[in-house]
Design brief:
By secondary structure, the protein is an alpha/beta fold. It has six helices and six strands.
Length: 204
């Protein structure tokens, strides 16, 4: 072989190694979802827990007529206070993305971070797929991670949410790679949502 020809098999071998490593890491992250969290099949007989909230009556009474953000719960199954028709999260992590969430694997790292910190997780996204909502609901009902999924599609309102809570609007590619450094996370002292709107107190 001439010297330039030596590089071809080396490049091919490196390419195969990168593909195999990527496949292995993706499968490992997906197994984490099954091992560390709950699936829809585990929900039989479970009732939604009523979230422990400090001063709920005062909190609800203090809501103004105008919502902070015109985005509500993606599904009624996430109501933590059914009689009042709201979900409440206190000292919440806030994840804002412009990606349509249609794959469980997109939120493996976010769920793990919220579970590690023992904090509720508010996820703001344009759309939530049916299967992914099932996984989020399973983790809410079993007490692993309290999740408040908010559907909000308007880019300007996503940016407004980030302005309120901090962090950044995370693109699809970063979610798929699992790249979520501390600076992309927001937070909220309280997040109250009904099926149409959200009232947010962003104070740390």
């Amino acid at each position: 072989m001439t010297p330039p020809q030596w590089g071809i098999p080396i490049l091919l071998a490196l390419g195969v190694a990168v593909i195999v490593c990527g496949w292995w890491w993706d499968r490992r992250r997906y197994r984490m979802l099954g091992d560390g969290f709950t699936t829809e099949a585990d929900l039989v007989g479970l009732e939604p827990p009523r979230a422990a909230t400090t001063g709920l009556d005062a909190l609800l009474a203090g809501r103004s007529g105008n919502a902070t953000i015109p985005g509500g719960l993606a599904d009624p199954a996430f109501l933590t206070h059914r009689a009042e028709g709201v979900a409440v999260a206190e000292n919440a992590l806030v994840l804002v993305t412009d990606a349509d969430l249609d794959d469980d694997r997109l939120l493996v790292d976010a769920l793990a971070d919220a579970q590690r910190d023992a904090r509720p997780l508010v996820i703001v996204a344009p759309r939530f797929g049916f299967d992914l909502l099932g996984t989020l609901r399973a983790n809410l009902l079993t007490g692993r991670v309290a999740v408040v999924p908010i559907e909000l599609a308007d880019p300007g309102l996503l940016a407004r949410t980030v302005d309120l809570c901090g962090g950044a609007v995370i693109p699809d590619a970063d979610l798929r790679s699992g790249w979520m450094p501390p600076e992309v996370w927001g937070s909220a002292a309280t997040w109250v949502a009904d099926l149409n709107d959200s009232w947010v107190d962003p104070r740390a």
